[in-house]
Design brief:
This protein is α/β, with parallel strands linked by helices. Helix content is 46%, strand content 14%. An eight-stranded mixed sheet has the order 3-4-2-1-7-9-10-8, with helices on both faces. The protein has a two-stranded antiparallel sheet with strand order 5-6. Helix 1 links the parallel strand 1 and strand 2. Helix 8 runs parallel beside helix 10. The structure holds aspartic acid and magnesium ion.
């Protein structure tokens, strides 16, 4: 049975229109793939806002986190309102409110203590993904698809290295298969939180900022998936930074070694650590654009037998 893991980044779920486009891509893929797992980031800007709430609370500010909670409620509700009729929003609205009251309670505790531990920061910053899954899953359900939201704390078991936790592969494999296979067998599309995991004791951890790509890779390995698609807001990996060089082109193919070198020299590309397990297993990895789904994107391959020494891309470290 062919399995596809698709990961949508923050801008791909950043507002209603983006969520609709992401859902269209999921539904189109589901026609070709019997088993589709979706991994999502928090809506763009949300993780930063949650952390700002935590840090300001720790610094003695008891007001900012409440404003942030109100802003985040408006942001999530606005997306829900634009995506589906009121009758379909109930469950997702309730989830968002639950997580935002948890956010306020946690920030209040941090404010009283006057410090935010790494463990507290992980619990607080996990809330963005725990809200965003409900938006995409509710929208998929509202258009008649079978979808269910899943928290990766049930799937990805990590050590207690808060803020950049390391997955434990055997435990993760067992937990992921036990939770997701029954859904996939019933043709349900799981919408899974990126970024987060949990210790064996069930304490929330995060895989590090930008960690949702890693989540997708971990789940793909745990499920013996055939392909991983990283959906972002550019056409793939480019020859250079298009903000500096407007003529930058999308690369059709890049090797793991090439992408590692680009990352090392400052390019904002997939972090090599996050994709290594996927490449090692020979799982096909694509970087694609949510906002230009016709474009094939970039395929990352283990090795393509080309001569080393070709110049593929140019990157810069300022200063
Ligand atoms: N939401 C998390 C972050 O902003 C993880 C991710 O987007 O990949 O770092
Ligand atoms: Mg993000």
């Amino acid at each position: 049975m062919q399995t596809l893991v698709m990961k949508f980044g923050g801008t791909s779920v950043g507002k209603a229109e983006a969520i609709r486009q992401s859902a269209d891509i999921v539904l189109a893929a589901k026609k070709d793939w019997p088993r589709v797992v979706v991994v999502v980031s928090a809506m763009s800007g949300v993780t930063d806002a949650l952390l700002k709430g935590a840090h300001s609370a720790a610094a003695g500010d008891a007001a900012t986190f409440r404003t942030i909670a109100a802003d985040l409620r408006n942001k999530h509700f606005a997306a829900l309102e634009a995506l589906m009729p009121p009758g379909a929003q109930g469950q997702a609205r309730a989830e968002v409110l639950t997580y935002l009251s948890e956010f306020e309670a946690l920030c209040h505790a941090v404010n009283v203590l006057g410090e935010a531990s790494a463990r507290a920061l992980d619990t607080i910053s996990s809330l963005g993904e725990r809200m965003s899954i409900h938006l995409l899953a509710a929208y998929l359900q509202s258009v008649g698809a079978k979808s269910e939201e899943v928290e990766a704390s049930d799937l990805i078991i990590t050590d207690a290295h808060y803020q950049s936790a390391n997955p434990m592969s055997d435990l993760t494999r067992t937990a992921t298969q036990a939770r997701l296979n029954p859904l996939l067998d019933r043709d349900v599309i799981p919408v899974v939180t990126g970024f987060i995991g949990a210790t064996q004791d069930g304490v929330i951890t995060t895989l590090g900022r930008g960690g949702s790509d890693y989540s997708a890779a971990i789940l793909a390995v745990a499920l013996d998936a055939d392909e991983v698609w990283i959906l972002t807001d550019v056409d793939g990996v480019m020859t250079t930074d298009p903000r500096i060089v407007p003529g930058a082109q999308t690369l059709a193919e890049l090797t793991y070694r090439e992408i590692s070198e680009l990352a090392y020299y400052g390019a904002k590309v997939l972090h090599p650590k996050t994709i290594r397990p996927v490449i090692e297993r020979g799982i096909a990895l694509w970087v694609k654009n949510t906002f230009n789904p016709q474009h094939p994107g970039t395929q990352i391959v283990k090795d393509n037998g080309h001569t080393h020494g070709d110049i593929k891309a140019v990157t810069v470290i300022r200063g």
